[in-house]
Amino acid sequence: MREAIAQYVEREEKRETFRQDAIRAWEEYRRTGLHLSHEEADAWLGKLEAGEDVEPPTCHG
Predict the structure, then answer these.
(1) Is 20 inside a domain boundary?
(2) What is the predicted pLDDT for the residue at 14?
(3) Per-residue confidence band for 21, with pLDDT thresholds at 50, 70 and 90
(4) Terminal CA-to-CA distance of the chain, rounded, Å?
(5) Quick one: pLDDT at residue 20?
(6) Which domain holds residue 39?
(7) Position 3 confidence tier, pLDDT thresholds 50, 70, 90
(8) Residues 20-47, buried b or exposed e (16+ Cβ, 10 A)?
(9) CA 15, CA 28: separation in Å to the nearest integer?
(10) For residue 41, what are the contacts with CB-CB under 8 A and spacing of at least 6?
(11) Per the domain annotation, does 8 fall within a domain?
């Protein structure tokens, strides 16, 4: 029972951390307007997946 409770608490803490990160990211976007398109992010991730050592694309407004 203790293990189940500990796992639940850990999951909820991670979920809350993720939620707070998302809120901060949304607020930063609203403040600056900087972003990447889906296509830009997908192309970058595709290169990483292929083993290329590439820098992330530069955000733009």
Answers:
(1) yes
(2) 98
(3) very high
(4) 50
(5) 98
(6) 2-49
(7) very high
(8) eeeeeeeeeeeeeeeeeeeeeeeebeee
(9) 20
(10) 57
(11) yes
Residue 44 makes CB contacts below 8 A (sequence gap 6+) with 36, 54, 56, 57
Instruction: Tally the domains of the chain.
Output: 1
- Residue 40 CB partners (closer than 8 Å, separation 6+): 57
Residue 14 amino acid letter: K
- How far apart are the C-alpha atoms of 3 and 17, rounded to whole Å? 21
**Sequence letter at residue 33:** G
Q: Is 37 domain-assigned?
A: yes
In a domain? residue 57: no
pLDDT digits (tens, 9 = 90+) for 27-60: 999 999 999 999 999 999 999 999 999 999 999 9
